[in-house]
Amino acid sequence: TLSMVKEVQARRVALVSLKAENAVIEQHVREGGIGLIVEGEPGERQVLKLRDGGETYVIAEAGDLPATLGGRAQHNVFNALVASGLSYGLGLSVEQITAGLETFHNHFSSNPGRFNVFEEGDFTVIIDFAHNPEGVEAACDTVARMEVTGRCWVVLGTTGNRHGDHIKRAAQVVAGRFDRYLCTRDNTYSLEDDGVRGFPAEEIPKRLADELRKQGVEEAQVEEVSEFRAAVALGLDSCAEGDLLLIFTDEYDWCHERIMELHTRTV
Questions:
Q1: Is the pTM of this model over 0.90?
Q2: Rounded CA gap, 61 and 48, in Å?
């Protein structure tokens, strides 16, 4: 990534880091670049800052940004830094950037499919369009920082048109992080690119389940569900009070409708 800096055709370049002490950013700022950093560790007070020349500007505290869920969603802390750098480069003031970040919510209505949290019923449901192992890991890390009094469930199957290795790695990432695993395949992308994936779409649930077992997940915790919507229905019907259900999906509109229907039935 750093090798790209010299190739970028831009008036100025901003570098971003989740660490305050970063020698690369220090050098970059000294040479006239923009640096965006976070002071503090996850679980503690974190402050987003922008450095330009000899000035350091406080953007906001991570816990004050709704999209970070009180700082639990560290991937959105990083996204906030990136958005700040872009906005600053476009000429917005730090005050305008802060106001934007502090009023942007990760609701389904404003950012569908991007870690939307629903807590209307007795349990929590999260839908997220994580389409690679890194995205899956970011979502799992966020769930790990949330307070859950019951069981944690996951519907896994949104990486259907990726390389077969990505599907395997996604299973490795979630292994050991949940109490129940519903292994399925998405309805849209799994029908594409058998050549890229290396095996038929119908094999995705079994391959996910097999990798989970290989990683030490107990047989009783894993269930293969051939159809995605059936897996979601099973998860929603099985969750009890205090549980959390994380759904990885590209069908977030359909999932949102099912969650709202469930809420209507339970009120």
A1: yes
A2: 6
Q: Identify the helix (H) or strand (E) that includes residue 35.
A: strand 34-39
Alpha helices, H only, 55-197: 74-89, 94-103, 133-144, 164-174, 194-197
Listed in order, strand segments (DSSP E) in 148-210 are: 152-156, 180-183
Alpha-carbon separation of residue 39 from 29, 50, 73, 108, 137 (angstroms): 17, 11, 16, 29, 23
Cα separation, 19 vs 6, whole angstroms:
22
Task: Dihedral sign for Cα 222, 227, 228, 233, please.
Answer: negative
76 CA to centre of own chain: 8
Instruction: List, for residues 156-214, the tens digit of each pLDDT value.
Output: 986 656 678 888 999 999 999 999 999 999 866 666 555 567 788 888 999 999 999 99
Q: Give the separation between CA 133 and CA 174, rounded to whole angstroms.
A: 9
**CB distance 14 to 35 below 8 Å:** yes
